[in-house]
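Minutes, project check-in
Item: structure for the 484-residue chain
Input as provided by the requester:
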Amino acid sequence: MSGLLRLVPDEPEPAHALAAAAPRARARPRWAADPLDELAEELGGVCAAAVHPDEIAAVLEADGLTGDQIAERYGRHDAFELAAELYARVPRSHPEPDPRPDPWRVAPGPFLLRSLIFTLPGLGYALASPLTDGNRESPGLPAGTGALVVSALVAWAWNQALAHRAYTRLAAGGRAAAGRSLATGAPLGALLATGAALALPAPAGAHAFAAGQVLYLAAATVLLVLGRERLLLGALLPTATGGAVLLFTQPPPGVGVALLLASTGGALFAAGHEIARTRREEGAPAAGPPAPSPLASVPFGLFGLGCGALTALAALGESAVHRTGGAGGPAVLALTLSMGAAEWLLHRCRGLALAALAAATTTTGLLIRAVRVLTLCVTGYLAALTVLALAVGALWPGAPPPDAVRLTALLALGAVLWSGLLLQAHGVAWLPALLCLGAAGTQAAALALSLWAPATGQLLICTGAAAVLLAVATALLGRITTHR
């Protein structure tokens, strides 16, 4: 009976006994604020992003909370116990990082300017036609074509390698170091290219024009590397004026020669002035990586040689085979006009690839996003090239409209050039160089053996080369290490 009577107490239990029986089970009254809730709200971002309670404990200790303060304010033994409870209370929430600024985002305006700079020198060939044609009476290519093409290819290859070397010196030693490379390399390249032209038989006027051509290319390389595009455009104004006159009438030979001399002389003067300025800027070298060996620029020169040969074959293949004027002139003009868009899309491709890396969560996802980026940029460039080819074909006097085969062949050549430049921008230089040289050699052999029509051979060979380059570019952009 005494046990049963204990089930119904006659008097209340002591307060300390109730507290010992269930110290944490009793609900806190509404009016009693829990200081731990306030702390959890204050450190909500830290607690949600933490991957271990020790991260929260480190923040608590950094805030200056001592063990005595923690025991007095929150009733916990130390920072680790307090951090463990905060970690359990706050749900995990890892916010997305703030979007990084795109280092490759650039305005298209400067690239439109570069398109004009790449295109206007082509008008010089029309102005100099009385010099380069000689006294030819038979159809086909002028007698001085070989000297002009060889000198242009040598100058193109040399200046591509020189530009790469000067850019590396610019990064490692500043404008003064780049100026020294250009001051030595530009005259040497002009001398080599002029010697290559003089080694081939040609009219005296063709030899003179070849010499002026290589001098202009050397000066243009200096100005482009040093970022003086506007000066170069100013030097080209006389040639542009002559091109405008050609739309209405053929100017006298003396006028055309004078305009060409004015452009070449202006470019040489501007280049010399800029090199002199770099010498006055001599000082402490710029902070940057050491410049690589000059041999590192060789594949860039070979790529320039391959691209130049492919472009020359596209321009002259029809005339060389059929002994008549073909559609090569409008096609090459459209190609040079598209180079500004090509450079801008190269920047956009690199920026979009970085965004794809930030958004991807797996290597497969990165590869899929890289394919999308590459497809978007290549399609955009080929669309621009198509529009330009159709526009130039419609405006070119006496030129037939481009048919499906010629237009597709031009797009294949554009894809080769663009994808090769993309690989070079990511440090892959030898593959596009050797592939472009191989494609040019194969196309020249096919023309010599009359295996295909010039446009058909260009279409087949450039399509194969573009497929290989784009496949390598896809694999490259799909690697995480590429974007470091």
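Outcome recorded: The first helix runs from residue 2 to 5.
No further action items on this chain.
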